[in-house]
Protein 1
Amino acid sequence: MSLSNQHSISQCFQFFMIASLIMGCAQAQMESSDSLTGPVSSQSNSGVNTATVVNGSISSCELIQLDEPLPDSILNSTQVQVSGSVVAKDGIIPEFIGIDQEMIPVINGRFDTTVHRLSGSHTMVVNCVDYQVERAFKVEPGSIRIVVTSPETATFLSNHSASIVVSGYIENYQMGTTLTLNNMPITLDANGQFHTQYDPYNGLNHLDFVASIDTQEVDTRHSILYGQLDPFGDESQSKLAVDIRQTAFDKLSTAIEQHLSDDLLEDMIEPYMGRNGDIELHEIRYDKLEVDFMPDHDRIRVRLRIHDFGIKVTYHYFAGRIRGWANVDTAEVEVDLKMRLTSDGNYDLELEDPSVDLDGFDLDLDDIYSIAEGLVQPLVLDLGRDALIDVLDTLVIEELLNADLLNQPLDLLGHQTTMKLALTELKLTPEGVTALANAGVDPFPPVKELPGIWTAGSNTLSEGGNGDAIARMSVDIFNRLAAHAVRGGLLDQDLAELLGEDESIASRLSIAVLATLTQSDLLSTFSATAPVHIRTEALMQPVLQVIDAPMVGLSAALGGLRLNLSSPDNSGKDITWAVLELSGILKVYPTFENGQFKLSIDLTPRVEVIDTPLMPLNENAFEDFLETILTGLSNGVLNDQVTDAFEFAGVDLFGLSLTDARLNFDSAHPDFLSFAVDIGMR
């Protein structure tokens, strides 16, 4: 073999080795997690045409910089963040790039999106016209989580729409995951997303989601308020009816008879005592008196009888004075009591058609002046009639008006307000009086905005019952009170201060106990004795309805009540370490004891961890623990607080007060709470 041939073979061998090295490098590059490919056609390997026309020219890419996901990264979520930038040729930036056959917008040269990938190994292809990048990564998802994007919790929806859209996705979705909404199955797409219709009902709706895969099961709740929302200040839906029966008027008569004394009766006619022209009245005496209230059509006939009634008189004349007693066997005064509505929803009382009958009148003057009795008697009669009519006016008109029956003070969680009634109709019959009214409360100063007051909206009054008086109250009276309380911030409380009154509960709400319970590192930030502040924040009003089991009462559906837990760290700075949401049912049972209403409560809470901004917590154990704590409150501190908050002031009318009260439930009118009361002397 010649040297030239040997040289040629050597050159070929070197060329072959260099070519092999180049091919090996190229193959290694192709097998790596991040592959760069030179110019390709506008139809990329992924099958997505990303050619974009900008200002009449076709854009192209010189480089794709893929920031996320990192090469060969292991991701613990099925929601993969993809971001990066594009360097364009000739300064023409494309409007879109392709990510595994999906068009993603490019804004100012950057792209940022989230794609769903199942558990396992993946190679993502990102291409732009004539350039593409391949990126390998692995998905090893953690626990599944339900994310509801619509509707948000504490959403208010008017009843103008028949159904609402419910949508969201399963974070860390895996094939085989199932989802239910209020125990009904919901279809999930290949990426774990869901989109369905929900038909809400009037009131507080709890959307309860449960997702499960293998041994995992998670749940979440979103609460929405659906129905009629009235503007604040509009009290037209809060109906109240009060029936006052004849038995109540009979007891009122007895109360007046027992209430009046000689001194009190003398005080009533005091304007007539002393000298009035020629006649001077000194004192009165009587054996007994009777008062009768007789309801009739459009009026109440009132009769006052005074037996063995006497007035000591002096007659002054030009030559001196004459003294004696004016005696009446029975003095009887009758008037018509007219009740009229006023333009401001109040009532006005007037006495009409008075008549006075002085049966057996006898003027007994000093013996030597008995001849003057015929002259003095007409003067005494006229003065006596005026005085007795004035007594009846004072008894009926002033006492009933001063009782202020239409405005009752309320103490709600330490805040004072007044329940106000605006009369709309008065009916007087021989059986009694029926008053119809709209009920409202003086609003608390608002600290937050609400879209309106949710009301049941029922206007049909329930039937009455047996008792001296029967009140039929729309449950919307309580719904309005609840809305005003939320708007005024009355439900935004430091719950820890309330719980602190119970030492057994307070001892269980310590950082030392909670750190162990939640399997967290709370003690690295807080001392073992650091206090736990639980601040409540009401996002929506409770919805109240009448219930009849196990006894008649009110049920308050709760939702959107946030619990923010915080503690001071070692530097004294208060740090929030958990945010929870409380929902459930609060049942309130009114009972009548010692002349006033008392309230007992039964709370069935549901607690859900919404956020743990400081560190992960064992959420299930934490939720179960707090539910146990809150359930125990119904027999302790919270029961006392609610009872004290809702003590209604009694009406003081001639010493009368409530002696008994019975709550009734009318299934034909479920939005009305009816209770019958009996009255008597204290």
Protein 2
Amino acid sequence: GFGSSFADGTVTIVPKVPWGWSISFQRHRVWELGIDLAEINAGAGNLVHFGLRVSSPAEGFTTHYPGDYLGDFSEMKVVRLANHVPYLIDTQASLGLTQNPLEVTQAIQTPDNALPLVAHKKTAARVYVYNRRSTFAQPVRVYLYGRKGDVELPGSPLAQHFFVPSALNPDRANLQHSANFAIPESWAEGGNVTFTAVLRTALGGESESAVYTIPFVNKEVPTIWTIPVNTGTASSPVLISDDQMALQEEFMRRVYPLADIHFVRKPWTAIGTTTVADTISVLRDYHSDAVLAWIFGVIFTGHSPFDLPTQVYGFCPSGGGISDPTWCFGSGHGFVARGYIGTSRELTMAHEINHNLDLDAAGAGTWGRHTPEGCDAAGPDPAWPYSDDDIQDVGFDPWASPDDPARRKVMHGDWPDFMSYCESGAFPTKWISPYRWNALFNRFATTATPFGIRDSRNAALIQQIENSVYYISGSLFPDGTGKLDPVVVQPGIPSGAGQEGPHSVRVLNSLGTTLASVNFPITFTGPEGDSLSRFEFLFQIPTQKGATEIVLTNGKAVLDRIVMSKAPPVVEMLSPNGGESWKGKQQVQWKLSDPDGDLLWTSLFYSPDDGASWVPLANRIKGDRLIIDFSVLPGGSAARMRAVVTDGFRTVSDDSDAPFKVARNAPVVTILNPLQEAVLPAGHPIPFAAEANDPEDQFITETPYIWFLQGQPFGLEPRFEATLPVGDYEVSVMVEDSDGMVGVAETVFKVRESIAILRIKRLSDGRVELSWPLNQPGILQSSSSPNGPFGILKVVPVV
């Protein structure tokens, strides 16, 4: 094949002025050869002779390396194979593959591989070997073959030297009881893969498993907008750290049955300052405005201007988590959630969004609820198939290092499911059960292409757009009262028929006749079992000819009403109104008047491309000006501003008279792994991961992610793995957007010897000294027999 790398100088980076860089690749040949030494009857310590012949009919050449070795064997290259460390081999040992010897997993799996797998998701395979009639571990060679049809996959067979512990039945919860393989990305690209495991013993015995056919299914890649919630002020923000957001995103990627999730980070200014308690209400308004902005773009261009988010999640700087599921609150909900670090810790976002993804609006919800027996978690799932809140089967994290003392790779069956309130007492705090894996797998769409986006969903929504609907929202309170928010009339997507319930919103004419209505039930208990101070609703009802008022009712009782005024308000956009060149923070100003003297509310929208797409900026502004930070918005040479104004019923709008210019902005780069100040084990691959969000390009995936380690070029992909020696490291990553602007992120981390490496030294006085790296406390287990029983002694390091 062809390839280039930093290591041999065939990739060079040249900085450009004033920003950016150019990357130069020199094309060169790369050969990878694999030789099965058993097939040529070669063993440890032997001399091996080889030569290479390359022939290409297309280019008409044949060459040999070295020289003409076919005519003179003395010209062949000679390699001496290393001597192996002598192993104690028990000739009485009975070694073989177990009855179910192969497990292919991405987070959780059953012994019979009954759980479906996702294409392009990091995957591991575990091969189980039994060791009978021996009291100590035995060396074997394990091979894993992969094929698609009759074609052997690249790198097949994977091979591993493995010591089989003395165990009649290997324990799936013990990482050392299986030969563990990282499945190459090319094997999990979609479609059926056939796996075969082969075992070869030190004494020449061989056994082969049955053929396992494992399908890898392409699933949609959902988009989730995340917003750090500012509970401080504009001048002194109180925000969650980037590392905390990255940790939540990374673990949601690990446990959800998806190849990836596009997390698009929005600035806190998208929703302004708020409180933790009001975050859900603010996020609902923001999501509603985002859909309206999307509709503006559809009406202008005839197609979807951007992918609507599956969810909008607010990262709070304190508190637990809250969601907004339809099975709790009815239709019109299910799109927003917020949280900091709840009982699910690093899986808090995964927990809250799981609540919302169960779209059982007409029922009571099942897998979107908590697990039963979940440490007092409220409202348990009536369909939960297990007797407790545990994951039941063995969880496996393909990303984790087996020697990382702070992060488990294997989760026992008694680990709590992440929809429980119980905690494992280790890291990760919780994991995913087979039941939840299946539910989420079925929730997300299967696609024909890798990393497919549900274009059909956008197309279906476009067909539902009405040119004019009432946006009717409000609140109901435990004391029986209720209040309507100011109504806005704009294009929208009607909410549907609603549900059975005593409460309703009704559109009436001057005679009091109902022209349209939506009924709904209410609750003052949230999905976490918490008491709510108010119940919020939001419906979109097509506008009705002859309508004069909108009322909120409970049975026959009218709780609140909004009556249409005699005359509409008047709005005029003053600044920007065309010709300006803006960047950074600027004041947007508009002129308001109302013949009836009504109180007016304004919503602001911004378009960087003359109306083809829109961004919501703020809503329900009581005033005629607002400071906007354009450094976090997409720039453009034909920008427009739109003010949508309501007097509570009648709605008007005005745009900038002519385009103005907004400076384009660099991408925002986030390093997801390694985290800041992380301590990682030496001798094992370290996952490096970053993502870049750009105001103009949104989620950047096609351009190179250029990594630097200690100032030297290190990698070109958003995600890769590398093994590093012990040391202190600085790593940075640069990403260039389509405008040639560069975003940079940096982090520092340490690599240390693993705590799993135990050094033993016999002292002159007969005592034995045990030592291990990292200066961490540990637990020493000792026994006079390889199979125990083990005594446990807590040990504290001496510095």
